Amino acid sequence: MRAAAAPVVRAAAALLALAGLGHTLWWGVAEPGVALAFGTLVTVGELARRHPGPAPRGEGAGPPPPEDRHPAPLGSAGALAYALLGQNGGHTTHHGVLQTVTVVVAAALVGIVPHVARGRGPALDHVARRVLTVAFAAVCFQPLYNSGRLGEWIGQGPYLVVFLLFLLGLTALCDSVLAAALAGARTGWPYGPLLRDELRAQLGIGSAICASGVVMALGVAVAGLWALPVFSVPLLLTQMSFRRITAVRTTYRQTITSLARATEIAGYTPPGHARRVAALSRSVGRELGLSERELTVLEYAALMHDIGQLSLVDPVPCGATAELPAAEARRIAELGGEVARRTGVPAEVAIIVERQADPYRDQPVAARIVRAVNAYDDLAGGARHPGGSLAALERLRLGTGHDYEPGVVESLARVLARGGRSRVVPVPPG
Length: 430
Known about the structure:
Layout: H1 5-27, H2 32-47, H3 73-83, E1 87-88, E2 91-92, H4 96-117, H5 124-146, H6 149-154, H7 158-187, H8 191-223, H9 227-260, H10 262-265, H11 273-287, H12 292-303, H13 326-342, H14 347-355, H15 365-380, H16 386-398, H17 406-417, H18 420-423
Antiparallel strand pairs: 1-2
């Protein structure tokens, strides 16, 4: 059923867009000046669309970070403001639900044309989500306002602001549910952790978008369309800040990836070992329901898990620390944790690196994952032959009494059964 979520969402968005277009062509555009102003705002927002930086790919890749979940915040805020618009300078508007959808879709399509021409257009799922979430907000507001019932119930005072904020909270929840369903259909990951990550992401740029949508709608209701450029400035500044955050995180990831390659360049580990362990660890962590932040910490620790081998005079054969005596493996892990601390990574990363050789009952969950996945890659020797993978997995199962947590090993088995071994694409080197 989860696999059918994406086609259903896309079909619903397409039917809604076609219905809105047909209605608008038949009845004409109500308040053309207002529609043009908000359409222009949505188009400008799409033209200023932020393009996500490089990230892990394949099954091990998680959803985009919070700042990349809303790549066009100004366009999103403008669309929500139009859906919640009841007045323009004190005069009642009558654009309705279907015209709202039509204006938003048309403006978004115009705005993404340059990005499509450069081969960097938005994913179809993002467009479908935009259509459905805007339609949800409009359906909840426009009929009530245009019929006069909303005015009878709560009036035009502060209660209207509270109602709009409550409505946008529901809209954000709707968007999160759609995003999690689409991600689950695309990846097969558990729905609960995906929804949790989407809801957490709404606390960042999502909150700014919702607040800006309310402020724009209320500002236009009192001051007219001149309020749009005024209230767009804070969101544009927020978008610029998130761009800087994205650039910093991209550089940080590239630095850690380059540092992880030091063991490969020095001949201590096989080529691609750290990146394979990181990608597969992320898949297992996702299978176990870790949050997006926990997955990021897990990925960094997996990339750096062998950094302690640089202290060895004689390299371990094939870099396979899974076969070392417990005392030697623990010494290498402790040295790796010390190196990790000196690089400035979060303290959790260093703890995972230095505790990966402890008995699994004493380890945090992330360290258990890194230990099992590292052992799997060591035993499989980087080979992709099914027999070698099955033999390595069986060795891990035999060691679940002391060395590896059974739950982690079984999650690894499920990831491999879905093709995780062949589908995980290594993290691009820095």
